[in-house]
Amino acid sequence: MIMENLVINHWAVLCSASLNLVLGAVWYSPVLFYKTWKTENGLTDEKFKNVNMGKMYAISFILALVMSYNMAFFLGDTQTNWIWGLTAGFLTGFGFSAMIFTAIALFELKSLKYILINGGYIIVYFSLIGFIIGIWR
């Protein structure tokens, strides 16, 4: 790829990184998977009492920013559109990220519910950031 054909929309990247926190708040909320996710992880409200949530969210945002920039570089060609962005995001989420996550979870003896909840989040998140970066040229 010639660098002069590389298009990175930094606002789309920032929006995609922010989406990580928003989607996570919904995905892991009591409305969707919170109770099952806690049970499958052996977590209790007591374990969260001494957690520095500000630090956890800040680090999560930085990691999401890295993932979003990485996706933006992969989708940086001027011919990228929302269809290719969504497809590339799904393939990244499903074909790479969720598969390695599942392999690790299997060796950690995690349950199928644990794998489906977290793997599903990974697939949806990458699909959405691919879509955002693809459409917001």
UniProtKB/TrEMBL annotation:
This is DUF1761 domain-containing protein. InterPro entries: DUF1761 (IPR013879). Pfam families: DUF1761 (PF08570). The chain crosses the membrane at residues 6-28, 56-76, 82-107, 114-136. Keywords: Membrane, Transmembrane, Transmembrane helix. It comes from the Bacteria.
